[in-house]
Amino acid sequence: MSAREHSYTVLFEPAEEGGYVVLCPALPGLVTQGDTLEEARGMAQDAIRAYLESLAKDGLQPPPDKDIALEPVKEKVKVKLEAA
């Protein structure tokens, strides 16, 4: 069995307690973290590898990467809950 290389876009979000939370938009549910950016990159590689291996075991193909062409918009949204 030959090795195939896959490439995915990941997002590194600084965590309040330090380090980074890593998300991969093309792989739903994939979330990992690392104390440093370098560690977070390594954790992302490990998590993506495990995700793709799990898909392969189920006979599924790896999904294509999602093209993130635009910068995310960050804003606060307020909601009000009425007392019950």
Radius of gyration: 17 Å
For the largest sheet, list the strands in their spatial order: 1-2-3
Low-confidence region ranges = none
The H/E string reads: EEEH
Per DSSP E runs of 2 or more residues, the count of β-strands stands at 3
What is the helical fraction, as a range of percent? 25-40%
Measured between the Cα atoms of the first and last residue, the distance is 60 Å
How big a fraction of the residues is strand? 5-15%
Count of helical regions: 1
Structural class, by secondary structure, is alpha+beta
Based on the model shown, name its key terms.
alpha+beta; 84 residues; 3 strands; single chain; three-stranded antiparallel β-sheet
Question: TL;DR?
Answer:
The protein has 84 residues and is of the alpha+beta class. It has a domain at 11-57.
